[in-house]
Request: fold
Amino acid sequence: MPVLDILKYPDPALKSISEKITEIDPPLLSFIDDLVDTMRASAGVGLAAPQLGRLQRVIAIDVTPKNPGAGLIVLINPQIISAAGSKAAREGCLSVPEYTANIKRAADVIVKGITPDGKEAEIASTGLEAVALQHEIDHLDGILFIDRIANMKRDLFKRKIREG
Ligand SMILES: [Zn+2]
Reply:
């Protein structure tokens, strides 16, 4: 499956609201494979369809590289149905490669959605995975992590460009 180009800020697709998916068909499943492959090839812990220019509500998350045993999550039409607590953590985004920032989000979330095999899923999540779920669901509503920075001076960090 091909690794696709990730759109970079300020591409207008990243500011758009994605549409609800009404049918899980072979083109969608093939796109989901590309979404997961592109996330892995880019060493990201999550990726949302609009980052690949497809304005549909599907996300992939896999924090296993940082949290062994976490596993891959792919959710169609994901929705946060419960959020508790509050925590600030450093975030980055494959679409905003030059910056990281401290972002305050819910510490624990319950997210519901549909898996690629058409089953309803409800995922209770905490830690980095809960952050990633909120970050990726934001993408479906055209919200980037830089839109959630409380204090630009204090919380935004320019990333050192890796050489070579
Ligand atoms: Zn992102």
